[in-house]
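User: I'm writing a tutorial on reading structure tokens. Could you give me a worked example: one chain, its sequence, then its tokens, then a sentence or two explaining what the tokens reveal?
Assistant: Sure. Here is the example chain.
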Amino acid sequence: MTDRTTQESIKRLGQLSQDGTFDKVLKSLKAGNPVLENSPLSVEAIENALNTTPDGLESVGMVPGQLEAIIKLVGRPPLVVQNDRVQGKTALDEFFADNIGGKITRVEKFLPSVGRIEFMNHDVDWGGTGWVIGEDGPDHLLVITNRHVAKFVAERNFRGEAIFGYGPGNVLYGARVDFVEEVDIGPDAARVFQIEEFTYLADDISADVAIGRIRKIDNMGRISPLPLAETDGEDGETVALVGYPAYDSRNEHQHMESYFKGLYDVKRFAPGFLIKGDELGILSHDCTSLGGNSGSPLISLDRGVAIGLHFAGRFGVANSAVRVSTIKGILAGQTQMHVVAALASQGSEAADKSHPTEYFEGREGYDPDFLQGARVPLPDLPAKLELAAPEDATCDRPHELRYQHFGVLYSARNKGPAVTAFNIDGSQFRAIKRHNRTWFHDLRIPRDIQLDREGYGHAKIDRGHMVRRFATNWGTEEEARRANLDSYHYTNASPQHSGLNRSRAKWLGLEDYILNSTRTHGFRANVFTGPVYTKRDPGLGDTGAPLPLHFWKVVTMLAKEGDGDTHLHATAYMLSQGQLIQQMLQNDGLTESTEGFEFGQFKTFQLRIKDLECMTGYKFGDLANHDPLNALAESESLVTTKPVIELDALEQIVI
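And here are its predicted structure tokens:
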């Protein structure tokens, strides 16, 4: 006689009839409950239906689902929020324990900390709800939402870290949180915060959680972390869902209109009860919700704390939330990843050799006073690189691996060099034939943080020298041969895709071009070089190391000026497919300069040192003050329209 959905609806209606809910609805109707003012059904029709047994509803012209929706509406209204206050909270006494209005008033202080997750550069304007869950140091707050909301604009890299994705036209996606979006309340730019990054994005088999970081500002008002419950909650506890229900085609139109009267996408406060979860321990509730509620806080009105993160629901059955205990575990660093990458086997270890600490005695490393007129120290690097500390470190150089004419700052986290620094004396070059095919491990640092022959086993992945083999082959015959051999340590290599070889002529010729310039004093130069490590880098097989997509270089020299004096000059370069360059220009508001970017081939760019610092987080001291490209870009000159040059020929270099 009826389909399965109708049978389920009749069963639930029977339960409601037995527990007294029908009587509460009739009493509320007679009292003139304002929630029913715009109902598509008349009060008389509802009263007539409520006095009819569930299996006889069709005899009075009403389908079971229609009545069920009205019962839910009366008992679980999604109340409107205006100016951080819940409207209509005094009309709920028939369905909740005493003083429900007072309980709601007690948690209204949390409403300013709940916002709408909006997207940037995406064809979807917004995707769900988020709320402030904690602090991240003195300058940032953490906002929690659902993974399936964040994945509109973010994805996971090989380490499981969250990165923003690219949309059509190679434009980077972004996200922000609008803590207002209330009915009849105008926009407030001071309460809209950009999500700088997602610090956590769950994998697809973990709890549906994403966490983003926003920057604190002065006068944030009442935007602050919601307190988290000590326990997950009890069956029957009074709760509320705060969020932004959106029109959701998965529900029947007439049901949604009964709830929302055509008003969607604004902040709502929906009270309800916890209901017993299933055997998997999912936290369930019966607060009214739609798709835009994804990421909403589930707040205990009895205790005045957040007890869960709403993530899904089924109309007329139950909604589901991530438990507060799970959230706390994530915040504590228990990322719940179910797949752990294993290190590559070391089966080919015998093919490589190693050098112990004593082998490197007498190596001075990089000389910061090499130019004999200006001191150029090693750059300062961010702590997140986790620099290795060699056994023969000195107090003034705690992280430098010192070799002949060059030094390396090595990232244990990335299993590769962060910076190589070398001195070049073009007047003392010695030609040494390439005959060595053996690569060495430097045992001054742990062997297990260094790659090996097997790690570079892919046919299209090269061991890319950061310090070129012959660049430091100068000085006495012994020094040149020692430098040549030193360059074959894995600490001096970074994995490079063979496709970048198309740009090697320009990239490898940079130092030679500068050394041979008539302006370069003494045929001397210092070079810093290394990979640009980003969260977007793919993984290098199962080694746990990234495969860098960009490489940088900084060259310093003493240059002769028109007055005959010499001054320090410093220039920066990048070998890239252009993504970082494009993003830099977009961040500077030069979007018109990026429309012609084509990714695919590696290109060589000259860019400002201060822009390289922003990309890498490295600090190059005062070198930016000696950058001729920086001076050109900030002048009135029309020679360049943007602070970057794509080098089709080395003669385009600004020195």
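What the tokens reveal: Residues 351-652 form a domain with the Extracellular Endonuclease; Chain A fold (CATH 3.40.570.10). The chain is about 20% helix and 25% strand.
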